[in-house]
Design a protein that fits this description.
- The chain is built from six helices and ten strands, in the order βαβαββββαββαβαβα.
- The protein is an alpha/beta fold.
- The strands form two sheets. Strands 3-9-8-4-10 form a five-stranded mixed β-barrel, surrounded by four helices.
- The model has no long low-confidence stretch (mean pLDDT 94).
Length: 204
């Protein structure tokens, strides 16, 4: 039987996942790439895990994902890993210093049919250190990453730890807000947390 480690950024996300089942191994490891990588690596070092899933809420790109949707990651991308140039952003691959992405396991969510009340979408999830807060920033990111559905702050860090430990990696996010001008009055944490619980009930 596959043993799965689930990591979130904060306790509120972990609680939403745990609400799906008391048997899940869920731990909050902190916000951001560094905390996610270090925290996940420490947990994986205990041994015995076959897979790690980065889980939580995220911002969705308008027209690609809506509030309450479930996004299953196909590829996690460190969208800021590279260099600025007069001609635009250069990903780290173009500099010859490594990779800015990892493939993700296509988690079997909705394989038996649509989830009641939930839309499940499959695509890239971007990892950023600074989440987008302007319309111009959202347009620029969307143009650079036409397959991206959402942005969050931990997936690439979790994937890095998984890669080094030789275990499978997946990422699942639910959409709490749309990417663009920062307006917390439009954020729907309750909707996203409820969707996270439902998604893990179906997944695991």
């Amino acid at each position: 039987m596959m043993r799965t480690l689930i990591v979130t950024a904060v306790e509120a996300e972990a609680a939403a996942v745990r609400a799906a089942s008391g048997d899940l191994e869920v731990y909050p490891v902190g916000v951001g790439i560094a905390a996610a990588a270090a925290g996940t690596a420490a947990l994986l070092a205990r041994g015995g895990y076959d897979r790690v899933i980065s889980a939580g809420i995220a911002g969705g790109f308008a027209g690609r994902a809506d509030i309450g949707d479930v996004v299953v990651c196909t590829r996690t991308v460190a969208a800021e890993l590279g260099a600025a140039s007069p001609d635009g952003f250069l990903p780290i691959e173009s500099l010859g210093f490594g990779t800015s992405w990892f493939a993700a396991e296509k988690l079997a969510l909705g394989a038996a049919g649509p989830l009641p009340g939930l839309a499940v979408r499959f695509g890239e999830i971007l990892t950023l250190q600074t989440v987008t807060g302007t319309a111009a920033g959202a347009r620029e990111l969307a143009a650079r990453h036409p397959d991206a559905l959402a942005e969050a702050m931990e997936g690439f860090g979790v994937a890095t730890a998984a890669h080094l430990a030789g275990v499978r990696f997946g990422e699942l996010r639910t959409i709490s807000n749309l990417i663009g001008p920062r307006d917390t009055s439009t954020w729907r944490f309750g909707v996203a947390f409820a969707a996270l619980t439902t998604a893990f009930k179906e997944l695991l």
